[in-house]
Amino acid sequence: WFNIDKGCPQGSALSPTLFITYNCDLGSSLANCTSHLFADD
């Protein structure tokens, strides 16, 4: 095992917020491409 000193802990309440913030402009960043976002539990 080793310590991870970057990022946020798994299960943190901050994780979904960071994920949404990172991916919110993903579709508009991909010029000349068709993108589909998929979410699954």
Describe this structure in words.
Helix content is 34%, strand content 0%. The chain is built from two helices and no strands. It has helices at 14-23, 26-29. This is Reverse transcriptase domain-containing protein. InterPro entries: RT_dom (IPR000477). Residues 1-41 form the Reverse transcriptase domain.
Please outline what is shown here.
The chain is mainly alpha-helical. It has helices at 14-23, 26-29.
Overall SS class: mainly alpha
Q: Quick one: overall form?
A: elongated
- Straight-line distance between termini: 27 Å
The number of helical runs is 2
| Uncertain stretches of 5 or more adjacent residues | none
Instruction: Report the mean per-residue pLDDT as an integer.
Output: 73
- Assess the beta-strand content as a share of residues: under 5%
Quick one: biggest sheet? none
User: Compute the gyration radius: what is it?
Assistant: 14 Å
Extended strand count: 0
What's the helix-strand series? HH
Q: How are the SSEs placed, and which strands pair?
A:
Blueprint: H1 14-23, H2 26-29
